[in-house]
Amino acid sequence: MKIVLKKQPQKYLASVPTSVRKKLEKGIEQIMNNEGDIVRLKGYNCRYRYKIAHYRIIFDRLEDGEILIIVIEINTRTNISY
Questions:
Q1: Of 4, 35, 57, 58, which is most buried by a Cβ count within 10 Å?
Q2: Residue 69: strand pairing partners
Q3: How far apart are CA 61 and CA 18, in angstroms?
Q4: Helix (H, G, I), strand (E, B) or coil at 65
Q5: What angle separates helix 7-15 from helix 18-32, to the nearest 10 degrees?
Q6: pLDDT for 55
Q7: In this predicted structure, what is the pLDDT of residue 5?
Q8: Which pTM does this prediction carry?
């Protein structure tokens, strides 16, 4: 299993306080284990939303022999659209 963070999630994680960063990193680990509040988004085959407190993580989960998770966006509930 492999995780790739696009540019926006990397910048967002660098900009938030350490306590929030740890919470979001723990959420990314839960995505790897397919745990937590994960919902597939309508209109997409492989795009999902992970909810942790008032933060949302949008990611693609691709399976081609190996599982690849691409984190597309991390933001608060009010600032993200999906």
A1: 57
A2: 3, 61
A3: 27
A4: coil
A5: 140
A6: 95
A7: 95
A8: 0.90
- According to DSSP, the residues that pair with 71 across neighbouring strands are 5, 59
**CA distances from residue 35 to 2, 30, 80 in whole angstroms, order as listed:** 16, 5, 21
Which domain CATH number covers 41? 3.30.2310.20
Q: Are 26 and 69 in contact (CB under 8 A)?
A: no
Spatial separation of the C-alpha atoms in residues 65 and 44, rounded to whole Å: 20
Of 70, 80, 82, 57, residue with least CA distance to 5: 70
Give the number of domains in the chain.
1
Task: Note the pLDDT of residue 65.
Answer: 85
Residue spans of the chain under pLDDT 50:
none
